[in-house]
UniProtKB/TrEMBL annotation:
It comes from the Bacteria. DNA polymerase III contains a core (composed of alpha, epsilon and theta chains) that associates with a tau subunit. This core dimerizes to form the POLIII' complex. PolIII' associates with the gamma complex (composed of gamma, delta, delta', psi and chi chains) and with the beta chain to form the complete DNA polymerase III complex. The keyword Nuclease applies. This is 3'-5' exonuclease. It comes from Salmonirosea aquatica.
Amino acid sequence: MYAIVDIETTGGVKGPTRITEIAIFRHDGQRVVDSFHSLINPQTFIPPFITRLTGIDNQMVQDAPTFEEIADPVRRLTQDAWFVAHNVSFDYNFIKKEFQWLDEYFNRDQLCTVRLSRKIFPGYRSYSLGNICQSLDIQIEDRHRASGDAAATVKLFEMLLRADRLALIPVN
């Protein structure tokens, strides 16, 4: 199993920054079998430059659940699955940090679609999500939003699975 994840945040991983949106697609290696998406009240101010990038503002998240309130589906959908994300350390470390604030240890095996793309699809100018998706004709709807970026990462991951002649992706 694979849990393909994307988050939006109030800033970089360091410091008191928090998650503002999360999307998870649980994938069995053939297709998506479950999913979860939610805005999250970060309980802190969302800077204007983040709002300009994501479209997520303080008013949008004021009545959203806190991370603690959505921790169960995050835990369930990532349990016994590879944690997959584009630039996985960013998404993984944020979620790990959110669980630490709940006094809970979060540990998952990780796969990075940036690293996999460089090895399986060598020679592209850029491996940012937007650029690699454009190069591979993957449509991204709702760019810089968790659900849209995670859905594009699912399509990218499926292409990687099909093209993985080097057996770089662990099979379920």
